[in-house]
Structure formats: structure tokens, C-alpha cells
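Workshop exercise sheet. Pairs work together: one partner reads the sequence aloud, the other fills in the structure field after running the prediction. Swap roles for the next sheet.
Pair: D.N. / O.F.
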Amino acid sequence: MPTRAPTAASSARHRPTAFGASEPVTAWSRPRGFPRPERLDAPLDTLPGVGAQLRRRLAKLGLETVRDALECRPRRYELAAPERRICDLFGDEEAVIAGEVRSASARRRGRLLILTAQVTDGTGLIAATWFNQPWLAERLQPGARVRLRGRVNRHGFAVEAYDIGDDVSSTADFAPVYPASEETPARTVRRVVEAALAHAGDAPDPLPAALRAAEGLPRRADALVAVHRPRSLAEAEAGRRRLAFEELLVLQVGLARRRHERATESAFPLGEPGELLARYRSALPFSLTPSQESAVAELDSDLARPTPMQRLLQGDVGSGKTVVALYALLRAVDAGHQGALMAPTETLAEQHFLTLEQYCRDLGVPAVLLTSGLATRDHAAARDRIASGEARIAVGTHALIQRGVAFQSLAVAVVDEQHRFGVEQRKALAEGRSPHVLHMTATPIPRTLALTVYGDLAVSEIARPPAERIPIVTAWVTADRSSEAYQRLRRHLEDGRQAYVVCPLIETSETSLARAAEAEAERLRTDELRGLQVGCLHGRLRPAERRELMARFKAREVDVLVATTVIEVGVDVPNATIMIVQEADRFGLAQLHQLRGRVGRGTEQSYCLLVSRPLDALTDTAVARLEALVRTTDGFELAEVDLELRGGGQLLGTRQSGATDLRFSKLRDDRALLERARALADGLVDGDPTSPLATAVDRAFAGHEDPGA
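Structure field:
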């Protein structure tokens, strides 16, 4: 492990901070050299020892620049292990040995390559073994000095980490273990990160000096060294928390900047709800739940203001978000303006239109559907009705904001599954006076995550479904028992129920998915479900075919709908009470929960069967996902599990990359850091626009979406 020279900060204070530092973090060794910020954006093959081939392999791990390498957080650290003489090794204890190679040989056992080296340190001789690492053979020459970390077993010494020559970075106590792949092992990533550390001080520290002093924080460069070359686990954690605070602060300042910018925009104030909303409430065949009433009250408060509403409506599947969304749209109509609902797919837009149009027809509110799949004549007619104001509510896909579509007076826009839209698409809705915008998502988000991802939006939450909904019974079986599942399914179908069968997500190609769905539908027609009506729904169907198939399914003319994930959201057929998800282990937790939400929408007991590949083919994470689905139907609880399984860096896929790619934050553990960053953010928005903090915010948010744009 590299030694550290003492710094001028040896008199640092030992005062406690929110970052848990129990030692003078300002005494961490400091990279030296004149700062050169441009070096951080240089490709990795500018580092010593990184050639074109390694650069391509590193890119597959998401490492492309020097900055990426510096911000590659270790998955874990090797714990302290005693260094033993070979003659003193015993039992199953993990230990470090050092010596030289006497001889080495390789042999195969099937597809397994076993490399064995006889190693001596003068007190004894032991056989050290490596598996499937053929490139080591030429380095383990007689006389080569080695330092090995591993355990004694009946065959000798099983090597877990190794250093050859004078380097001890892989076998040292607290050596970082990085994300890796079969072609790019962790020790290779470690070597690249070590080379990148020479540039840790090349970027100006985004945190102002006064803020660092007030919060008791070390410099950024020092924190990077602590994360990648820790002398203890406590030091590594203190460094991580310092860097996590920085990225959370950058994110929160960016979100605060968006809030400040939108405060200068103007919107139509819609006043109090009037007669149309009273008739809408009377037309509903049920009373709103307390959660829905709370969301409606928050909407009314926002819509009365002359500044545009920016609110996120989140709720579990089947919780009644569409009812609240239509309320918001009708508030625009009630005040003499128009409302628009934009969905990410034609299937979802069509489903929303079918639901909303029933109420609109009864209320005398003209509504129109606009998607790119409409015939040319119908598309033009829909555009004309929107432009003239005849259509008071428009439902559609991105076709709503394409050239040639103009609203007469758009006051409220509802954007469903809003994270699927880019910034330019939403900006097109906001030309001229900004509409009030309600973002609607059926992917429940933990509170900590909502503060991070949607920190620039007010949040309304519908936590519980209507009381009459019966929880879905979920079971998980492996593929060898799937025939039993179809036998049970057939009995339910013969009793008049309907079902979905979801095909596995094997290919990202829409064409491949369509073929897989068609093949499965044909197999079921000729095998387990022979004699029953089996339809097939996928994204390659023409809009008219899709609408006809869904109409037949709703009319109970189709017993089973074999589908791709096109049915993930929006499809509402109360008589469909059974879902079978094939190869469920291939899907994410949030997606499985959304799929399951297509059943359980009526008053009958519903069932969801998850069929996975054999247990020995599943990862621990896949097993944990499936077990969680069986354990609970609570989407908010599942969101917490998903956050724990996937980590905070990807933020459950709820937003696109960029500002939300958190490298060092652990959202479940860093709630205090997040709250502190949020508290400081508003006071830092109007600082020097050329400061390192402002530059970091610009870089983090450059080219990435603003949900309120």
C-alpha cells in the first residue's frame, strides 16, 4: 500500500461532524501538482498502461474518462487479514503470505483451467491455486516474488487476491474491490483507478471553502484518496460521505435552480372548482378515497395560482390516479380552457382515452384522441378540433406536441409515466403561457428517492387502493411446474374468467419480442389452452388491430391475451383475474409489480403466477425480487426493496441519466445528508455563475430532462 506523506494539516481538529469522521480527515494525503481540469475529461487510454483494447473493455463497465475512474466507487473493501509464515498457516483462516515461486503448472478439468504454483518463504512450501486465469502462467516464473491473500484448504492455498512483484495494492488490508466483469477483473480496474488518482486534484472543489469549513469537510481530492486508498473502513466511509454530500448538493442546487426559474413563469389561474366538477363527482360510481380527496385539495390550491403548477401524483397500481388526473383536466375545461393528457405509448394513450371518454361524453365535454397511428384524414381532423378549441380535452402520445398541433388555450397538461419523455417533448407543451403540469407515475417511489429525483416538484401521494379491491394472491414456481399452472388456469377460464400471459423479456428488439409472443400464443392454442380463444398483443400490431383486439378482450370474446410488456400500464379489464409471467426472473421488481397490477381490478379474487428459470440459474438478486413479490402487494414497500437491491445510483430507472447518476450516495443511509443538502440549496442558487459549484451543476444537468419544462 502506498505510504502517505504528512501534510501541513497535521494540527487538524478532531471535532465530530455529520460525516462520522473520528480522525482528522484533513490529514489525509493530498495529491500534488498544478490543477488541470481538462484532464478529467480525457479518455482512459491517456493513462499509463491503458491501451485501446482495455479502453473498450472498460467502456462496457461505464468507465470512459479519467473522471469516471475517479468516481468509480468500490463495492467493498478487503478486511484486515494477518500476514503469516507458511509454516504457521492453519485451519480455514484467511491470511496473507509472501514468498517466491519455485515452479508452476497448469491442467484442465473439463472447462475449468487450474493453475498451481509452488510457493516458498523459507519456512515452508505450499501449492497456491488459481482458477480460469491462464494469463498468469507466464508471470509465475521460478523466482518471481508474490504476495497472496486467501485460505488454506485440503489442496493447498486457494488464492483470492494476489500481487506479483513489489506492488501490494490487491492484497493489502482494506484494498478496494471494484465492479468488474469476466473480461475486466477487479484488479485491472484497481490499477486504472490508481493511475487516475494522480489527477484527483485537477478539478476545482465544487464545495465553497466557507461551506467546507462550516460543515467540517475535507477537500474533494483528499476524499477521493480516502475512498480509493483507505487506511481503515472508517476513513473510507468518511470519504464516501463527503463525496455523497457533494453530489447530493449539486443535484439539489440544480433542482432549486429549476424551481427559481419556473417561479417567473405565468399560467392561467383557474379559480375555484365549479358546476362541471360537481357533476363529475356525482357521475362517479364511487366516493373518492381520503387519499384522492387530499390530492384533489392540493391540486385546487395549485391551480388557483397564476404560477404554473408542477406536481407529481404518485400512487400504487389501481389506486385511482386516473380519476384525479381527469379532475385536473376538467378544472381547465370548467375555466374555459383546454386540457391535455400525454402518454408514452399508443396503447396507454388509447386506454386512457377509452376511460376518460366515457365520463366526458356523459358530461358533454368533447374529447379527442391524437396518436401517430391514426389515418391521415383522422389525424388532420383531430388537429383541427384541438386548434379550434372544439376539443376541450386531448389525449395522445408525443403526436400532441409535434409540428402542426396547436392548442387554442391549454391550461392543464397531465403527463403520464413522465420520466419516459425528454425535455424537448415537454417544452413543446409549454409554448406561450405555461400550462399547469401534473406528472403522474404508477411506480411508487420511497420518500428519500422522491426528494432526490423529484426535488423540484410538489408530491401528492395516493397510498392505498379503494377499499373494495381484494389483494392479489401471488405465487412463484420454476419452469418445470408451469404445466400445472396452465391446468389451473384452464379451470378458471372455463369458469368464465380471463387471463394474461406475459412473454419473457429476452430481446430489446420490438420485432423479436413480437415473434416470441406470437410463438407462445400459437403454442398455447395447440397445447395447454387448446379450444380456448387466445389473442396476442405486442408493439408491432397496427393501431386498428390493437384496438380491435383489446375491444374483443374487454367484450370477453378472447379468453387469454398473450402479450409483451406493452400491457405494463394502462390496460384495465376487470374480468381478467389471472396473470402468468413467463421467465419472471428476467424482469425488474417495479416492472413485475406494474404487470401484476393488470389483474385485481374487479371485485373477484385475482392471481399472479411468476414462472422462473430453474433455481440454479438465478442470481441472489433475482430470488430476492421474486420473494418480495410473493410477500407483499404494497408498491411502496416494494419500492424500498428495489432501492435496497439496486442501489441509489440508477434511482430505479425513474429518470434518465445525468444528474441522477449518483456514484457515492446510498439513499437509504444518507437521508441526513440529503436533508442537509436540500436545506442549503436555495441559498446557493444565486451564487457566482462561474464558480466550481455552478459549473458542476451545469455539467450534471446538461442535456438532461427537466420534468417541468
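Discussion prompt: The radius of gyration is 30 Å. What would you look at next?
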